[in-house]
TrEMBL record:
Disordered as annotated region, ranges: 69-179
Matches recorded under InterPro entries: Prkrip1
Name the record gives this protein: PRKR-interacting protein
Comp. bias regions, Basic and acidic residues: 94-132
Pfam assignment, any one: DUF1168
Organism: Actinidia chinensis var. chinensis
Comp. bias (Basic residues): 133-151
Biased composition (Acidic residues): 164-179
GO-annotated molecular function: double-stranded RNA binding; protein kinase binding; protein kinase inhibitor activity
Amino acid sequence: MSLGRTPPAANGDMRMVPVPERMSISPALPPRPPAAGSNALVEYVPPVPNPEEEDLEIKLRRIIEQVPVRVSNTSGSSAGSGSGDFHQYRQMRRKEQDRLARMDADYQKRTEVAEFNMRREEQNRAAEERTAKNRLKRQKKKQRKKEKKSKLNAGGEEHRKEESSDDNGDSDNDGDVKG
């Protein structure tokens, strides 16, 4: 039998007991100092910020700040339409039409610029092809001219060699005749 006491867990007596800190083996980080007066089992550590993510956050914040906030003066559900409601409607309608017209103009401008760049690139490519074709023709013509010149020089040198050998032979013959 028991002494009349119930175990502490049975009573619902749950106590927070500090858990000794485990030493994690991490060569990159130095060990953390024990938390002063903390009895938490898990300690929150903020994530290390990534510079690229920070840049994205800044850009996103800037975009959100630049988006205009439209506040329209709408009447409540129980109110009837007053004398100023038609003017408000016309003003909102005109603003929306202006916004749509600006979007259309911007889209038209972008498509024109894209088409212009495409045509310009195509024309540049065609001009480059023509230039390459003409360059090839010039090089072939130059090569043929060079080959023709070298053939003439080679043929001329053979002819000169024959003449010089004939001259040498004639002088030998002339010497024999004289002597």
